[in-house]
Amino acid sequence: MAGIAAPRMAHSEPVIPDWVTVAGERARGYGMPAGQEAHVQRAIIEPFKDIAPSFSFSGTPHQRLRGTITPSGLHFEVHHGGRPNVDPEQHRLMIHGLVERPLKFDLDSLGRYPMVTATHFLECSGNSLFNAIMPEPMQAGCDVLHGLLSNTEWTGIPMSILLEEAGVKPEGLWVVAVGNDGPSLARSIPIEKLMDDAMLALYQNGERVRPEQGYPMRLLLPGYEGNMNVKWLTSLWVTDAPAHTKDESGEYTELLADGSAVKFTFGMGVKSIITHPSATMTMSGQGYYEISGLAWSGSGPIRRVEISADGGQSWAEAELVEPVLSRALTRFRLPWRWEGAPTLLMSRAEDSTGAVQPTRSEWKARYDPSNFLHNNAIQAWQITSEGMVQNVYA
Amino acid sequence: MAGIAAPRMAHSEPVIPDWVTVAGERARGYGMPAGQEAHVQRAIIEPFKDIAPSFSFSGTPHQRLRGTITPSGLHFEVHHGGRPNVDPEQHRLMIHGLVERPLKFDLDSLGRYPMVTATHFLECSGNSLFNAIMPEPMQAGCDVLHGLLSNTEWTGIPMSILLEEAGVKPEGLWVVAVGNDGPSLARSIPIEKLMDDAMLALYQNGERVRPEQGYPMRLLLPGYEGNMNVKWLTSLWVTDAPAHTKDESGEYTELLADGSAVKFTFGMGVKSIITHPSATMTMSGQGYYEISGLAWSGSGPIRRVEISADGGQSWAEAELVEPVLSRALTRFRLPWRWEGAPTLLMSRAEDSTGAVQPTRSEWKARYDPSNFLHNNAIQAWQITSEGMVQNVYA
C-alpha cells in the first residue's frame, strides 16, 4: 500500500477519553445510527415543486454508503401524494376481474403463504433526471443526481401463487395494479411478468416493509421501473388489455426525437455510477485511491464494469463484489493512483444480455430534448488539479 | 374494534379509509418502521443482572423477521460495560508490538484503503444459554432463546492489508485486539485468521457501523464467536503468544464433563432454528403452513437442512434460499400441512465440512452441567393439539 501515508506512532501524552471512564448506555429495543452520523440522510429533492406540489422525492446518499444493501431508513422515496398512514388491520388486497374466484386478503391470511426472498434494486424511471435536461451539469452529490435508486432484500409471496389461486381466465392478459393512497397510482402489467418473478413484498431487509415503501404490502417487479412496483397495493384487476391509466399514458411515457412517444418502457437499462470519488467530494492528496461504485440492469446480472480515467480513451475492468445477483446493485472496485493531474473518470457497465451503457450524447440523440426518463447514460466526473470532483457532460 | 377479533370483510359496506382522503406525509431524511410495528423490538435480556450488573443484552426478534438480513436497528447487542459514545474524530486504531512499523490510524486515513464487502452472521457464544442450563425449558420466543444472533452486510478493510503495512515480524503469531470502552474487552487471535478473511469493519448494511456494533470501527472475524469481533477496536498488539486476558481465561471458556476447561473455542458450530412456527406462537388452524427458519455455521456454507415433524424419526430436506453464503445466515423453507395433532418439530443443519447439529442430550453429555457456551443443539418445538407452540427438550 505504498502511497497511503499512515502516520507512524509518536509519543504523546496519554489521554483517557470520557467514554472509557463513564458507563455506557444499556441495550435498547431499536437502534439508530450514531449521533455523529446524523448528516447521513436522504436528500430531499423537489424538482417539480411548482407544477406538482404534492409530489415529494428523497434520494439515497450513495456517496456516503459503501456496501450494496441500502439500509431501509435511506431507501429512496417518490410519492405522488405523500406517505399514507395505512392501517394494516383494515388494509385489503383484492384480486378480481378476469378470474374464476375473486379473492380478498387481509395481512393475517397472507402470513401462511409460501414466501421467497431476493435482493433487488428499485430505480425511479426519473432517476438522473437533472443530467438529462439541465443545460449545464448540476453540481450536486450522488444523492441528488442519482439517488432515486436503492437495493434491499425483499421477502414476500410469489404473485403466481396468488393469481393461480384466483384462477386467471385465458383472456386475462394484463393486470392493473392499484395503490391504496390518495393518487391511487395504477399501472398495467403483462400477466407474464406477474407469473414469472413478481412478488407481493411483505418484508424489507428482514422486517416489515417500511411505510414509505408501501407498508403493509407492495408489488415487486424485479428490474421494472420504480412506479410499477405499486406501493400500498390494494387491487389487482385482471383484464384483457392495458388500462391506459393517467400514470402510464401521461406521466411515464418517453417522447422520442422523431416526435413519437414510447409507452410501457418497463425494464430499466444497464447503468453504473462511480460513488467514490464523486461530485462534491475533494481528493485528499495524490496517491492511492480505490474507485468504487454501483452497477445494475433491469435485464439480468452485471457481466462487466469498466473504468476510464482518460475520458473514455482507455478502459480497465473493475472487480465485481460477489455474489453478483440478477437485478440487484453490484458494487465494483478498482485500485487507482491519482497523480494530481486533471482527470475525467467514467464507468461503463455491461449486463448479461450484452447491453452496454450509452454515452450521454448517444442517449440524448434518441429522445426529444424534454425527456428525462430512463436516463442510463455514462456519468463522467471531472477531477480538477485542486482535487475537486465535479459533474460534467462528456 | 378494540379487543374484538375483527370478522372477515366478506360482505361489508364500501369504506374509503382516511389515508386515501387526506394528504400523506412528505419525503423525509431518515425513515423508520411503521408505528403499528413499534412492538418489533430487540428483546432486552438480563440473565446475569445480579452477578454482572454492567452486562446488558438484547436479542434479535427472529420470530418476527422473514428474510436473511437483520436490519441494523435489530442487530443483537452484548455489552460488558454499555454502549460507549465514542468520538470518531478522537478515536484511533494502533497496530503495535512485534511489527516493523507501529502504525496509528484515524477514521479519515482509513477511508482511502481498499475495501471488501461480505454478509456474515455474528453469534454470541452464549446464545441459546437458557436451553443449555435451565432445568425446564423456558417458554419464550426466538428473541430471548436464540436472539444473540444476527446477519448483516459488512464493508471494511481487509486486516491483512493493514498488518502488511505494519510489517509483522516472523515471531508475531498472535494479535491481542482491544476495544475502546470501559471494560477494554481484549481477545487473542491467531495471526492466520487475521491474514485470512478478517476485516476492519467500517460499514454495516451500507451505512456506518452502528454504535452498539462498534462505531466507528470493529473487528470482524467471520465465523468466530461474537465477543472476538471486538467492537470500538482501538489496539492490535502483535505478540508471540496469547495474552490470556480475563475475557479468555475467565468468561469465555467451556467447562467439560471431565472437569477440564476448553479455551480458545473460536468457531461457532453448525446450527439452525425454526423461526416459523416457534415458541409463543399459536397456529391459526389446520392446513397448509410454510416451515421457515435460519441455519448457519462458523466453518463454511450450509450444505443441507432437514426438518422432522415426528420428533426426529423421519426427516425431509428443506429448500435453501439462494445465494447460500459462507458464514452467513441461510434461510430454509419447507411446505407442510398441520393436521391438528400434537407435533414435535425439529431442524437439523449440516455444513460444507459435513458437521451436523447434535441433539440436546449429545451436546449436554460433552460438558459440565454449568456450561452454557457454544450450545448448537437441535431445537425442538412442541405443537399442542390446541395449536400452541412450546419450547421443549427432546
UniProtKB/TrEMBL annotation, chains A, B:
Domain Oxidoreductase molybdopterin-binding, chain residue ranges per copy: 80-243
Gene Ontology terms for molecular function: heme binding; molybdenum ion binding; molybdopterin cofactor binding; sulfite oxidase activity
InterPro entries linked to this entry: Ig_E-set, MoCF_OxRdtse_dimer, Mopterin_OxRdtase_euk, OxRdtase_Mopterin-bd_dom, OxRdtase_Mopterin-bd_sf, Sulfite_DH_SoxC
Keyword Transferase: no
Cofactor(s) this protein requires: Mo-molybdopterin
Moybdenum cofactor oxidoreductase dimerisation domain residues: 266-379
Short name of one Pfam family: Oxidored_molyb
The name this protein goes by in its record: Sulfoxide reductase catalytic subunit YedY
Species for this entry: Albidovulum aquaemixtae
Lineage top rank: taxon: Bacteria
GO BP annotation list: sulfur compound metabolic process
Keywords associated with the record: Metal-binding, Molybdenum, Oxidoreductase
